[in-house]
Structures are given as C-alpha cells and as structure tokens.
Amino acid sequence: MLEVVELELPEPGPGEIRVRIVASGINPTDWKTRAGLANRVPDGFQIPHQDGAGVVDAVGNGVTGVDVGRRVWLYLAAFGNRFGTAAEYSVVPADRVIPLPDSASFDLGACLGVPALTAARCLGGNPEVLKGKNVLVAGGAGAVGHYAIELAKYAGARVVATVSSDEKQALAEAAGADLVVRYTDEDVAQQVLDFCGPVDRIVEVALGTNLDLDSAVLGAPATISTYAATGELTLPVGEFMRANTTVEFVLLYGLTPEQLADAVHWTSQALSADALTALPIIPFALDQVVEAQDLVEQAPVGKVVLRVAEG
User: 3-state SS of 206-245?
Assistant: First the structure.
C-alpha cells in the first residue's frame, strides 16, 4: 500500500548524502513495483521513486568533494535503499548524487535518472562512437526516446525518430531529431533509407512490433538496443548473422558499475552543455503521489513529477 506518512528525519551514514528533495520524477518501474510486477518486495517501509533533484542537506563520514547547499540530481535512489525521492528528504549513497548545473531546473534534474541513463546505455555508453553515425529512435516522444535523441545529437549523430501523432512529432522535433516519421506509414523504412541510408544503431521500445522495420533499415554491422521488450520474440537469426547484427537488452538496474558510470558521465557532460531538456512537466504535490503514479500507468505524453518543495 502506498500512503503519505510522517517519518523521523534520516541521518546519513558513512558514504551517504542527505538531500532535501525539490522534485521527484516518476517512472513506469515505480508503479510496476507498487503493483508487485518488479519482483522486489520491501522488507519494511520503502519510500518510492528512483529519480529526483534537490539540495545537499548533510553528508556522512568519508564523503568528500560535496558541499552542503549544492544543487544535485539523483539516480537509482530507491534501488537497494530504503529512501527514494518521494519524500522531503532522501539519504542515498554518495555516488548516486550528481551536481546539477545552475542552468538546469530542478524539474529537469528530476527527469534524468532512469530515462537519460537508459538512453545513454542504449546508445553504446560512449558518445565518441556515435559521431557521424545514423541512429533510429523508436518512440521519440517518450522519456527514454527524448533523451536518446538529445544525447545522440550531442554526440554528433544523425537521428531519425518514429512517433504516432502530431503532438509527439512536435516533441521529437523539439528534441532535435533530424527526421520524424509516423510508424503507421506504409513506407517508413523507405523514408528512413531515403533520408540517411542504413542505420548504425536503433534505440528500440517495442522490438517485437518493430522488428520488420528494424531489419529493413539496419546497416551491416549495426546494433539494436531495446529497453522495453516483453513476451516471446523470434529473431531472423540467419539475416542478423550475415549482417553481424548485435541485439542488446538493456535494464538499468543490471548494469555493471563501469557501464553505469559511463552513462552518468555522458549525461552529465550533455547536461553541462545545456544539451538536455525536460519533456512537458505534469506536476503533482507530494500528497498526490498515488494519483501521480496512477497517471504514469496510463502513459501520458510528458513527464509526471512531484514538486515537493521550493527550490
């Protein structure tokens, strides 16, 4: 059961930082965890939400280089930790607290975390490998798709995005996609190939549904990186083998520390260069957390954020 309660102010232990939360971003994994679909059952109370932004309030023993009062964004706050960001204060391991530039709003900081880091990993984890490459982003108006477009453009790639509506097309274009097409068009593959030729990497939200399109536009070699595949999947093994195709399945919670650090570094670089933006914010108050999670389950256009406090 998810409810708003009063708890004692948590104290940071060794290697931990306490952050006064200003904004808390909500992801699909948050409502799925609440619904019991994530195979993670808390052993006591659990404050939800992985992503957020705020101000450093206190530091534990052994933490260096982080000053009280610094603006920060957080990622994986509730992963293996009792204190997520759906609260006035969160205590998290120091390596999950990242400086937030003055030019970035707390809303933007709360939108990063899971979506941006997933996008960075799906793009290969290193911006250097994308310069001059062709990237196809499926679902370019979703949170991961949004940051995949922006991170790929920051890295110097040519980006094509697929969407389903005028509203989503406008969002993908605002993120910087060089071409936006409707995935419902009969000639999507031809539009992509006519624009940029074969693609080098695909960031995929629905691999089973989009497999024919992906196969039609893939270069040789190329990579499909999917972060939301479900159910059974049949791959054209011979075709992919001949093309030396790589198919990656990405789940942020299972990345190695090195992979996660690379994704954080790329995201931080782009953020400092003002290359990242927030999707349209759908704000809720902290005491509306249940309603906010329920809305996320309905997959709205935009990003649902709890505005916990004034910055």
Answer: CHHHHHHHHHHHEEEEEEEEECCCCCCCCCCHHHHHHCCE
